Queue: 2 jobs
Job 1
Amino acid sequence: MAYSKIKLPASASILILFGFILLSLQLMSSSTQESSELSEMHSWLLVINTLGSITLLILVVVNAYSLVRELKKKEAGSRLTTRMVSLFVLLALAPAAIVFYFSVQFLHQGIDSWFNVEIDRAMDDALELSQSSLAQRMNWHIKQTRQIAAQLEDKSDTLIALEIGSLWADSGALEIAAFSSQGRILASSSTNPSDILPHLPDEQIWLQLRQNKEYFAFDPGDNDEMLVRIILPIDRDQRRFLQVLYPIPVRVTDLADSIEFAFIRYQEMTFLRDSLKTSFSLILLLVLLLSLLAAIWVAFISIRNIVAPVKELVKGTQAVADGDYQQQLPVMSQDDLGFLVESFNQMTKRIARSRDETRAAGLEVENQRAYLETILANLTAGVISFDASFHIRTANQAAYRILHIPVSHFVSQTLSNLAGKHSELAEVLEAIQQLLEKADDIWEQRIVFLGPNGRQELLCRGTPLFLQDGSRMGAVVVFDDVTDLIQAQKNAAWGEVARRLAHEIKNPLTPIQLSAERLQHKLSKELPENSQDFLQRGTRTIVQQVEAMKRMVDDFSEYARPSKKQVEKINLIDLIQEILALYLHSGILFTTSFSSRGVIVEADPVSIRQVLHNLIKNAQEATAGPCRIDIKINKAVRNNAEYAELCIYDNGSGLHADQIETIFEPYVTSKAKGTGLGLAIVKKIVEEHGGVIWVDTSYNGGAGFVIQLPVFEFGNSE
């Protein structure tokens, strides 16, 4: 498992940036002090911090613009990032604004407190006191110098040179010197023996001396000390001058300088009072702006790093929603978000595994379903499955074929609904529905009904289906059309009867006929005339009945005997027209309707002739008045195979419902002299040719029969 964190260079660059910002702010704060060595760099520091603020503002704007684009594109995590950044900005801006407001108020009040009336008066008094102290010292030294000059008045240059040392010692001055008006030194005395020459006045002092006749001022000394320089004339004619340098104590000098500097500084600050407020407020605002912009920029970076796992989770969730269960997200940290990402990865693995298992199980189910559908589709028995409310779920092809109901009518229908749509099947469908609703166990029932193809007999078996909790989940019904099977059994039974009759009855008939003929031949001459007539009538009756019994036995033999048909390709339409030509003078009115010009079938023409003759003969015998027979040939499709459908309709008395069920069975007839084998033989011949025959129950104008034979080729339509 790979873990990725914020890279060290990125975090280090952020720390270095904050370090530079703090250092720059500290330097700019220090530069506001006059005594600071950084005061000369104040402008540069202000420009640097301003550029830093602009740079941070650009970074913040770029990040905000990028976030807005993500919001417009509705990228994952953009809304969460926006809410977190907005919350952070509000939380940072509110206290910073409060602190800034009160800081500015405190700053303005503090600056204003520097310049109240008491401080102004104190500064003036201090300056006046300093000036008064220095003036008093100056006056005292001038008085002392005048006394020294008075002692040297009217003395020669030599006496001055001799007395000047003692005068210096008594005065406490640093230096005493006498010089002429031309600047020639007459005498001097100093505390520093190394000073050979005294401190002579410069041109400025000489100029002032010539104007004012005397000079006194505070002058700087050699070691940054303050000196009182006093120059007075010794003589009234001002030919000689006396210069005395008095020292001022260092403490007094420092105090005077400090008071003067403070006063000047105070005057400057008073003049720059509003500028100071503006300057300090600007610096405070710059500090606030730098701090906020830096914090917001770092917030963008930090929040993006925090939201990054959430964005990956959103993308991963979208991928999972789209069906990509192989999605694995990188674990960026070992915190709660990292735990959430790990849980997501485990979840996707389990979902992928479950999907694969479900897909495999589904494939297995599909294979089993296809296997079952293949089996059900190839079963000859019809299979219908029902749900718990007895709605049809599935039905195989055999169910469609047996019940003759379209496929679309089965699904989601109940048998009662189908019975309403297919009245011809109402009896069987209602019977199965009742068995489904009442049966709690396996049931079996044989149901006989009159279907669209005549009498049908179904063998139905049903099984209710239950869940593990015992509740009913549906049922399955399996039914077979046993009509042909039962008919085959009946035919086999009748065939066996026919063979027995042929053996047991036909053999005695010939001796009976011969004996009757011999009796007539022997006794006809010996009996009276009346007895001869009676014998002749009796013998004739016996012979006729024996012939009738022989014909009946022959019919039975033919019905039981396997057909020996000679199959060939014949045109069914030409064969019908040949047969109809035989009935031109029979009084029967024929109408024909053929869907094509040629219908080629593979059949025995003799057998097909027998079928048509039997049907036409039955129609003629069943019609009391003029007989009219309609013959139609259409194209039909059954089980994806083409059939020639031959329909024969007459205008006779028709058939009753009880007759339709047994019309094709042997010895079933409504005629007084019929044997009941005609339609049975017809059905046998048709089935031997691979076809079917049934009574058209929808025809009410007489009797109607429909024959379907496998067709070899259909000709062009008429």
Note: The first strand starts at residue 175 and ends at 180.
Job 2
Amino acid sequence: MSQEPGRTRFAVDIGGTFVDAISYDDTTGELRLHKASTTPDAPARGVLDAVGGLAGRLDDVEAFVHGTTLGLNAILQRRGADVGIITNEGFRDLLEIARANVPAQHMYDFSYAPPPPLVPRRHRTGVPGRIDAQGTVIEPLDEDAVREAGRLLVEEHGLRSLAVCFLHSYANPEHERLAARILREAYPEVSVSTSTDITREYREYERTSTVTLDAYIRPVLNDYIASLESRLNDAGLTHPLHIMRSGGGAMTSELARQAPLMTVLSGPAGGVVGASFLAREQNLAKVITFDVGGTSLDCCVIEDGEPGEVHEAGIDGFPLLIPIFDIRTVGAGGGSIAWIDEGLLKVGPHSAGAVPGPVAYRAGGTEPTVTDVALVLGYLDPSGFLDGDMTIDADAARDAVAAKLAEPLGVDVTRAAASVFQVLLARTVGALREITVERALDPREFALLAFGGAGPLLAPMLAREMGIATTIVPQVPAAFSAFGMLMSDLEYEFATTVLRPLTDETLAGLEEAFAELEGQGEEVLSAQGVKPEDRTLIRRLDVRYHGQEHSLGIDLVPGDTAAAVLARFSAQHEARYGHAMPEPGQILTLRVRAVGRLSKPGLRELPPAAGAVPEPIGERPAFDVASGETVAFPVYARATLGAGHEVSGPAIVEEGTSTTVIFGDQQLTVDRYGQLVITGGQA
């Protein structure tokens, strides 16, 4: 690959089915994409396979950003480390007792039983010592008991990862830090996670769950990052490897090792960052992201260029106290299996994954997937799959749909295949309503930004279903999450719980606490080599009405009064929940976001297309959801469509790694950035 030294950027995103690698040439603005199969048994090999399709050596690479769901998969598949928990005496069962509530979806299920805790009781132990809610030590930590707990968990039970979480450590982390120092001195080869290194917020159960998950995935992530760094260095990479954070932004691999839980949803976060960048660059006030990969479908609302964010989330029933984008995930993607359950058609959450994959891959899969169904309906070209690099058997896909779906349902193959998309769309509409209609937002006022390998295929259907007027397919949609990683700054967030009334006196007294958090932010950015002029520190308050449980984040600006903060909080509360209350405010948590600005590629405008729309490269029969019939779809190569070109549906636009389907009542326009803009079709 011939490129100007120091002007190339790489980003890599690991999905459930494929690894996406993208390179960006700062000089020419050229974006290049290569996909390789995910290798679950050796994830680093899949990354190197994808990168190798773009460059033999990485000596010219200026920046390398990586997003991975390895930690997430370790949690979902229960393949993390065996963890030991050290907490206060009498609280060893906190993780199992949890909040003693029943999930809403099981409210009337009298046979419901909570899942077993991630850490068995024999691996949980308590030690004497206590700090109260004001941070005052009322009983010294028993250091000998900590040593005995370490001996029991490490020497007797053979554990190699420990989580330390004490009551009220958010107010005073002294005991956690002392326990961690004792354990690390006694067992330097053992991984030790402390709750206050991840989050200094109240709610002891949620904080215990968070640090336990961190300890659970830490050995897995550390081994993976070390292996990947070694192989990238052997390939010539001299610049630091950066890892995407779940809440946006990137951090060095060294920091990722210290806080691996911050990377747990780094793959989907890349797409949200990229969508936010496009929204700001193109002045799109309201955008819904629609990211469809091989195993899942992710959606997020972006308003005025800012994505929704939460500071408490959950993974497979385990709560997390970390900043994270407010993403709704549906367990359905290109590899999701369509199946019959007591006469009803269902799609997902089971996935064929990368191995064995859809039936059409001829790699051992026997259950029809969304990809197989798309082949049956004519949307995908068997000879052009992944630019022709992958052999696809459309006949095998049709046979599987016929045997597994059409015959049990008593319908023809086309009807069965179309029904799969109807079921998938119904599930997707439900997820989108959670983050729009249920928050007093009208989805018809938003543009739908479609990406991921299957996003451009499904999005025009979804837009018709929800009455969304505009669907946008960006450049290189199959690797858009990786593209978003190129748009990332270095970011890290620090927080501490204060629980004080929202008054002018309180605001004046927060300076010392904010200064401490900002000092931590400056230290982290300095360690990552960020120059002082490229650093930004953003102060934020989590505010709630007195007596509420949950809060909303409010940016704090110089000169703010309590009345101004409460007014902004009430306005946001009314926008989110439909009402405000005449109650006094309360400050729950202080937050500081430390941002290290990085140079990043911008959007490049294309010259207007010269001449009329080029002739189609072919034609094939496909199912038109607008008419409910199989009709002839002209097929266009995306590379031949220029800025200003317009195409009326039905039509198919192919680009090797992704396919966009425009139905009979829709129109396609190529905008000045080369993006596909689809309109029409709404009621």
Note: The two ends are 49 Å apart (CA to CA).
